[in-house]
Every structure is written in C-alpha cells, then in structure tokens.
Amino acid sequence: MAKGRDKELIELRDAALCRRYYYWTEVQRLRFDDALKVLSRQEFFISEERIMAIIRRKSREDTGYNLKPVPKVKAPRLTAAQLELFPVR
Question: What is the pTM of this model?
Fold first, then answer.
C-alpha cells in the first residue's frame, strides 16, 4: 500500500472546491476574496493561497465550469517622493 494522501480523495476534494467556488462567485455573486474566505474558513479549512492554486490548476484542465481564477496582482511600490506629488487638501 502506498504511503501518503489518497490521490483520488484529493481529486474529489478539488472538484468539490471548484464547484463551491463557482457557486459562491457566480450564483451567489460574492466577491472572489469573500468567496475565498468562506471556502477557507468555513468549508474546506485550507489556506486561501492553496485554494487559489487549486482553482488555477483546475481552470487549466477542462472542468466544465466557467472558472476564472483571479490573476496574481503585485501592489505598486510608492516612494515618499512620489506621494508628495499628490498634495493633501
């Protein structure tokens, strides 16, 4: 018997997670970050980063759902000099 986690169970979990992500974002019209919080803290008990990794991986596969993972966004780095260009009134 192989050691480690059961790959079939992981695939079933990932499929259920994608269905729930679709439900929260498309049916209930919840914002993606709020949907991630619900999935992470109330339904699947895994990190939001892991959930997004699963959704990105499953969206590359043909799941039958119209999954649109959120792109990775980098916050702009502003310096103090750049902020001085916008005077406070």
Answer: 0.67
Cα distance between residue 54 and residue 85, in whole Å: 41
User: Which ranges in the chain belong to alpha helices (H)?
Assistant: 7-22, 32-38, 48-60, 80-83
Burial string for 7-16 (b: 16+ CB within 10 Å, else e) reads eeeeeeebee
Domain ranges, ordered by start, for the chain: 1-89
Considering only the C-alpha atoms of the chain, give the largest distance between any 2 of them, rounded to a whole number of Å: 70
- Contact predicate 15/63, CB 8 Å: yes
Burial class (CB in 10 A: 0-12, 13-18, 19+), 51: buried
- Give 76: exposed, middle or buried? Use CB within 10 Å, 0-12, 13-18, 19+: exposed
24 close to 35: Cβ distance less than 8 angstroms = yes
Q: What is the pLDDT of residues 18-32, one digit of tens each?
A: 999 999 998 899 998
